[in-house]
Amino acid sequence: MADENQRTELPQERPQQSTTIPQEQPHQSTILLPGSVGHPSGVEVAPKTTWPEVVGMTVEEAERKIREDMPRVQFQVVPPNCFVTMDFNTRRVRLHVDSEGKVSRAPRIG
Q: What are the residue ranges of helices labelled H in the chain?
C-alpha cells in the first residue's frame, strides 16, 4: 500500500529556446487582368465581368467603355425580342439594345 501512495516524479523539461526563422517575403508578381490595369493599390483585381454603367448609352459609347477594361472583346449586338444561344464565350460581350439603339440590360461576358 505504501507503494501505491508513492509519488513518482517525472524529469523536468528544460524550457526550449525559441528560434525565430526569418520568413521570406511573398513573391509579388503583377498579373494584368481586365479592369486591373493601372489600379492604384497595386493589388490584383478580379476581372470585370459586367458593365451596368453602360445601360442607356449608345452601342458605340458602350463598346468604347467596355474596351477600356477588355481590349480584345468581341461584341454581339442583340436587338429587342431576339433569341441568343446559350453557349459561353469568355471573349464575347452581348449588348442588348432597345428600339432606340440604346443598351437596355447590363452587358456581361458570355
A: 59-69
Question: Using CA atoms, how far apart are residues 51 and 55, in angstroms rounded to an integer?
Answer: 8
Classified as helix, coil or strand, 109 is strand
Largest CA distance in the chain: 102
Superfamily of domain 55-107: Trypsin Inhibitor V, subunit A (3.30.10.10)
pLDDT, tens only, 47-95: 899 999 999 999 999 999 999 999 999 999 999 999 999 999 999 999 9
Query: 3-class DSSP state for residue 108?
Result: strand
Euclidean distance between CA atoms 16 and 102, whole angstroms: 72
Cα separation, 101 vs 15, in Å, equals: 77
Q: For the chain, what are the domain ranges?
A: 55-107
Provide the pLDDT for residue 76: 96
Amino acid identity, residue 64? R
